[in-house]
Specification:
This protein is mainly α and about 70 residues long. The protein has one domain. Helices cover about 90% and strands about 0% of the residues. The relative contact order is 0.18.
C-alpha cells in the first residue's frame, strides 16, 4: 500500500472522528446545558468560541476530513 494512501486514510479517519464526536457532544450536551444555564451558559459559550477557538478546530477537522476523503 502506498504511504500517501495510508496517511490520507489516517487523516480522514482521525479528523472525521474528531469532527463527528465533537459535533455530537456540542449538540447533545453543551448546547442544551448552555440554553438551560442562561447568563452563565452564554459566558461559557463566549469563552469557548473566543478564547478556546473551538470553531477553528472544527473547521480544520472538517477541511482535513473532506480533502483527505477526496484524495482517497
Amino acid at each position: 500500500m502506498h504511504y500517501l494512501t495510508i496517511i490520507l486514510r489516517l487523516l480522514h479517519v482521525v479528523a472525521g472522528a474528531f469532527w463527528f464526536g465533537g459535533s455530537v457532544v456540542m449538540g447533545f450536551f453543551v448546547g442544551p446545558t448552555v440554553a438551560a444555564t442562561a447568563e452563565a451558559g452564554q459566558r461559557f459559550m463566549g469563552s469557548l468560541i473566543n478564547k478556546a477557538r473551538i470553531h477553528i478546530a472544527f473547521t480544520v477537522a472538517a477541511t482535513l476530513t473532506i480533502r483527505a476523503g477526496l484524495g482517497l
